[in-house]
């Protein structure tokens, strides 16, 4: 039973109901499928109106995540169909890559489930009580294995989310590794796949590494390493777009494992990639070698380096700014906007006339127009005229759903200086 | 001399100052280049701060349009450079067409000037007192002829704007027609080109027609006919994008001269184009013939037809909605949003699962998020899940400038139904 405000939210196309809008949910177990009804109503006696079915969480502030406007009698069948539909969507709309997000939670009408493919490696992550239930995990894993027959299936864990959902602590782990990667050892039995309590196989990262390609560029990937699941993937189309405009001397700031830098290297005379993480740059250099590219990597704090380089009068023809999320909550937004302006101002000062600025934000709390405003303010301060060439978002394997603004978080603006 | 509020607007990256923010502008003649100063200031005695140079209008509500953050000593030289820079921008960023906007007013830092190329025909439009001055027209026309050597140069008139700027009434007219189009008659002397008072050459529309191509599709174009200068051009990249997703049976609503319909015909099994204007549909059919395509054209009110067709249970795989601007002023926005919702609701009801909706708005007063909200509300009412595939704007030959939101007016969303 949800309040009028909760019901309005659902009628406006969202799928979340916050706990404060839940009026009655007695003895609903963690992760249960519930039929959601609107409390009260205008009639007398008050009638309740069914809004659909949802996953329930006993712990999260997001108590309810709608899965259908109708009551659901077989949730496993529904989830199977949604996974198949998500896969069909990728077959239709994702090109030039064997690495992409296979399931994007609410963006694929499967709240709480993320799955990524990197060539023959599949990784998944569950983010809610409902998706963490043993039978649901069994359904998910079976469906993903059936569709992709991966050599390796990995579960990645978001420790903070598991804590918020009051789920037991877990580590990233391999849930399945087939004969192709074990030199002929027998395939692990299905019971091992779905049982979350089974002991994790201990393997060296390198044994799990795979090579994938994206836009014709090759990358090495270790599914248990790295900062997060899905690194690289959401920028895939923006990498290609940036390479369509880049030229001359290019600077890739917050380069991580070299996604933009490697794409820029195809069309630029010289590329420098900057990141504060040495392991990220080592992975980036491995990727550069794999593609036969020479890229200069600099381990540095981006703000310091941009200040030093712009003070020293260095100039570039192309600059990419792809910082981590500066604003994790709405409270951080003003400070984040100052940081975005600072970065963009330094970059604009270093761009030659006719130069290209590719500037990104993955903070959900910073909208495209917020970012544009920061860039524009930087353009006024630097006396540079700017034209907006492209106003882009995340790649299509991270589909966004109108009505669930949280499904659209990545902004990538491509601008021309004059 | 402008008020603090006017100065703030300029410092925020805009180029317009409204008359209500002009404090002193004594005896400034129409269209003059002025040095703009901020009144007052905090010092004592009050000092004034120079904000740059601008075109002045004695009539428009937009009294000042900035052209440079510095004083301008030779405005003709500045305008020539800006026109050249606009042309260089198109050479770098516009592909697959010989029809495009050459100069887009504030988007090219040339407030008050529009110029379009359609193969060997060039058309231009002046929208301010400054651009209408005889010497300025001479500079502009000379520069455009030098760059393009057009067979025909046409001036198109926006009667309402000329009235607002208190400029003398004019008609659309040919200002230049060269030997290529006159069977060897001598080229008209330059004096005829620039003199706005010279008698208009009377020619049949057909004698002026040209054929242009865009994304490999051929179009006939009569520079003195049609609803507005630049029809077709702002949607050029969206036409190509739509064709990248379209399939099956397609319906193009508000088809005008068939821009979307012709692009859809490449990838769809059947295309129907709807417009209320018979002359537009006749031009559309000419274009279809030119490309060897069979398209069904229906002369109808779009709202009526969508209601009838959706009530009759017709279904499509692809529907394009490209209505004219419903909201001309902010007051119209709520009614416009209701109209957008109505159109999109009808379209969603008619789309088969997996169908593509291409929905546009060219109302500046309706933002991309407003349009998304209307679409989302339609999706809730029609119980259709939607994924946003692309959130697009106008083509790059209509560059938008961060800080001048009015330079970005076109929205084109591509969505997948499920």
Physical arrangement of strands within the biggest beta sheet of chain A: 14-13-12-15-16-18-17
Helix content of chain A: 25-40%
Largest sheet of chain A: 7 strands, mixed
CA radius of gyration of chain A is 23 Å
Oligomer: homodimer
In terms of DSSP E residues, the strand content of chain A is 25-35%
Shape of chain A: globular
Strands of chain A, count: 18
Keywords, separated by commas or semicolons:
homodimer; 18 strands; alpha/beta; 418 residues; five-stranded mixed beta sheet
What does this entry look like structurally?
2 copies of one chain form a homodimer. By secondary structure, chain A is α/β, with parallel strands linked by helices. Helix content of chain A is 32%, strand content 26%. Chain A has 13 helices and 18 strands. In chain A, the strands form 4 sheets. Chain A has a 7-stranded mixed beta sheet with strand order 14-13-12-15-16-18-17, sandwiched between helices. In chain A, helix 2 (75-93) packs parallel to helix 4 and helix 8 (236-245) packs parallel to helix 9. Residues 184-205 of chain A have low confidence and may be disordered. Chains A and B meet through helix 2, helix 13 and strand 17 of A and helix 2, helix 14 and strand 17 of B.
